[in-house]
Amino acid sequence: MATTTLGLDQETIEIVKSTVPVLEKHGTNITKRFYQIMFENYPELKNIFNLTNQRKGDQPKALANAVYAAAKYIDNLETILPVVKQIAQKHRSLNIKPEHYPIVGENLLLAIKDVLGDAATDEIITAWEKAYGVIADVFISVEKEMYDEVKASPGGWVDFRDFKVTKKVVESDVITSFYLEPVDTNPLPLFKAGQYITVKAEIEDQPFNHLRQYSLSCASGEGYYRISVKREQAKDELPEGVVSNYLHNHVEEGSIIPISAPGGDFILDQDDSRPLVLMSGGVGLTPMMSMLETTIKDNPERKVIFIHAAQSSNVHAMKDRVKEITANNPQVSSYTIYDDPKDGDEYDKSGYIDLEWLRTVIPTSDAAFYFCGPKGFMRASYHLLKQLEVQDTNIHYEIFGPAEDITN
What we know:
Elements (H helix, E strand, L loop, with lengths): L9 H9 L1 H22 L9 H6 L1 H15 L8 H14 L5 H17 L5 H31 L8 E10 L4 E8 L13 E6 L8 E6 L9 E6 L11 H9 L5 E4 L16 E6 L3 H14 L5 E7 L8 H10 L3 E7 L10 E2 L4 H7 L6 E5 L2 H13 L7 E4 L10
Parallel strand pairs: 7-8, 7-11, 8-9, 9-10, 11-12
Antiparallel strand pairs: 1-2, 1-6, 2-5, 3-4
Helix pairs in contact: 1-7, 2-4, 2-6, 5-7, 6-7
EC number: 1.14.12.17
Cofactor: FAD; heme b
Family: Belongs to the globin family. Two-domain flavohemoproteins subfamily. In the C-terminal section; belongs to the flavoprotein pyridine nucleotide cytochrome reductase family.
């Protein structure tokens, strides 16, 4: 990004910035309408977008926040470059291409006109057309670097590559692991602990393919990739998870699954030698397991505190593996929290994670903290760490699905 404005004239900048209050008020309505219009005009794009996130409203809200930020900082786009890179990682994993950007721009402008009506003057639409072109060029440039980097890595690939399920392991009542090895037997690229892959589910009788991103739950360099998938049940007018149920019910050992190369910027800093605190709720343990397995393999002297929260042992995946690691590695301590324990369950705390208990298991705030799980768990974890006076630079987390602010 050579300059802050990339050649936009001052009048365009001022017009775009003047729309910030409007976007703050109407942004989600605009982006909801955008997706409706785009899917009507380009139904083939349903092969790329997660339609469940559309129904839940998560994706329109995330896009509205991104558009709002782009307008607010249109005269200093470097400010939002970290967010651009985070989104670009997901785009690269989904194989978003430069030719998709004009389609998005065309339909976003149509949605702005449709929602704002007469308030969307020709002057505003022209300014936003110019601004969108600049923003799109930034994304395309950043994503090109990512595609080039992936392609240049040993064994790396762009687009989707067929993998065979070599092992399927039931981890709990709701989570099953799938071990994946490349069909072409070419080298398997290394990945960083915390990264994810995109699975392309080509389901019979479904009009479109479905793309879903799943964290890798193993250490790199093992000769396989492993994803551990929670079966999503129908809830609150939302149908059951199309892809998770397909994987659980129809994908078996020997099945072929196309996947994209590993990506994502929620990664373990292995140069940090301070204590490592890994906190997870539910299926959020998948990237935490990768970080745990990676640390005992590559940094066996590093102290690790592993905290996992679940409803009960029935839905607690990989508990035996964590017990094994803890027993064999004196630098690792692990704790289990069950909010609805069953008779015979072994756990360290019942109910929910709280400050008083957290103080008893975390000896210092000068550590690296990573956490992942349901949004309620994430918000609680963040605010508890802030009460422990943990610096923001030491707090790392990932939200499954579209980005959302958990700090409020």
